[in-house]
Amino acid sequence: MSLTQDLEIILEAVLPTDPSFRRVEQAVMDSCIHDARRSALEGSKEAFLFSAMRLLALPDNGHTRLIPNDSISVLPLRLVSIGRVVQLTDTALETPAARGELIAVNGTAVGEIEASAARFLAGTRQRKRVIGPILLVWPYALAHLGVSSKENTTEYRVKDENGRITDLKMENKHTVPASKLYPRNEHGKADPAWQPEKYAEMEDWQGLGLSISLPSFFDQSQSALPKAISDAAARVRGSSNETLLIDIRGNTGGNFLQTMPLIDAISEGPSRRVVVLVDKFTFSAAIVFVAILKNRLGHRLKLIAEEMGDGLTFFAEGGLLDLPASGAVVRYSSAFHDWENGTSNETTPAEIARQMVPAGKLSLDREWVVSSTAETTKRAFYRQALKSLAD
After folding, report:
1. Are 315 and 336 in contact (CB under 8 A)?
2. Quick one: which of 124, 141, 144, 190 is 20 to 30 A from 298 by CA?
């Protein structure tokens, strides 16, 4: 099986189906197709993947993209965008390394590399910061972006929490499968294998209010999420005037329709104040959850933390396609969503169109960048956020 067959899957099954490509100029698309075909004919898998990433990033729609994680090897470092910086959070192959902020790769500042890589990454600026760190440990990508070293090594400059600088030199031949450190649905946790233990974690904050953490709306069992949502809705209804803090940071989406009972319960309290914590790892159905709440609660809902990973107008649904020759995966879209203006079109599923509301811009009421995902940091953040509503 050849790489040209992978390209044909993209050309025949994705580009004609995905409505986000309708807004891309044909000449630009043809140029990217030409580059991908040339790489495929040359038999260079990594070159093909990189050119296919560029092609699928053209619509600037984060739901439409090439996911190389299952088909490439990377240097054994887990890099995650936390707050405003990229941090080294974990390693593989028993690689000794100080955890901390990544400053530069081979002497080039991280911000410069991110700017060069932007056109190969799909979606908003925030989504690019979520999915981009994998390029910083992929030797082929670094070379293509002009950041390779003269030796067969890659050097990372890292600053720890005390400000100490460490230079970490990695042999390019010592790599691991990217999927070992970089999950398809990047959640931003230090542990790449993280899975939610509960779909709703609730805690009473002794007069300040009730917190509800909703880490994911993906539920393969189709029963755990509805049960958790039902329990949370009952708890909310039992304290109709209580201030609520809802944390959907790191929630990459799933099925927002299953969360409607909780949205209904929250909306029933006429004087309830609600603060929702969001971040760059808040995507898709989690954004829709916020949009519907904002439409119902208006000024009583406050958004805190950092800009979400998608805007309110995007293309979604669709599915995943395996590329058998390269081993990569293509995520494609099939449906239009406009939660800013509350409009749909012929591609929007009827059950989603019935729920669509005009939420406006969903601007942050307060930017509050948290530089750590540690549990102690999270608890302190909850308390401060609830106190800010009480003041």
Report:
1. yes
2. 124
